[in-house]
Design goal:
By secondary structure, the chain is mainly β. It has 2 helices and 14 strands; from the N terminus they run E-E-E-E-H-E-E-E-E-E-H-E-E-E-E-E. The longest helix has 6 residues. It is globular.
Length: about 180
């Protein structure tokens, strides 16, 4: 998470999607555009899940006009494109998400079927970012975080085991997982 302009917080999320030059809508794990290319896109279409099967629904629901999307062909970084959302993503009946965009820069074009690293930057007010709370607790009293992401992996040093550090994408808490939580 980075500090944006005064009172704003920027968060980046990344995923890998396969470029498909066919018409929208995108299937799961895919990225398509209304123009069937990167340079002329007014709308980007993403499947609900990225190539690893990670569900991006909460991300799509949080995005709004002004947030950004960066595309880079995974095996050829000279092919890239940056976009700004002009409105909120819209869920489609087929499970895909349609995002109105304007292109702010880029060079080249990924070939059909190429994996693309996609970076999503979401800007929120600090009030919104800090207003989210993970209220649920398990039977032992530990908070059940909605979207935990591991920051540091268990490591052993001189016979000591260090606990795992996590960050919750939902409430923004940093916490230590002791092994007692589920």
């Amino acid at each position: 998470m980075t500090q944006g302009p005064t009172g704003l917080t920027q968060q980046q999320y990344a995923g890998t999607f396969t470029w498909n030059s066919q018409a929208v809508p995108a299937a799961d794990g895919e990225l398509r555009s209304d123009s069937r290319n990167w340079s002329g896109a007014a709308e980007l279409s993403f499947g609900t899940h990225d190539n690893t099967g990670t569900d991006a629904t909460r991300l799509w629901q949080a995005m709004q006009a002004g947030d950004t999307i960066g595309l880079v062909q995974a095996n050829n970084t000279t092919n890239w494109s940056d976009y700004a959302l002009t409105g909120a993503p819209q869920a489609q009946g087929d499970g895909s998400w349609l995002m109105p965009v304007t292109r702010s820069g880029g060079t080249g074009q990924a070939s059909n079927g190429q994996n693309c690293a996609v970076t999503f930057t979401v800007t929120t007010t600090e009030a919104l970012a800090t207003s989210r709370d993970c209220n649920g607790h398990d039977v032992a009293g530990f908070t059940q975080h909605a979207q935990p992401v591991r920051l540091f992996v268990d490591q052993m040093s001189a016979g000591q085991t260090f606990p795992e550090m996590y960050w919750c994408q939902w409430c923004h808490a940093v916490f230590v997982k002791t092994g007692e939580e589920s």
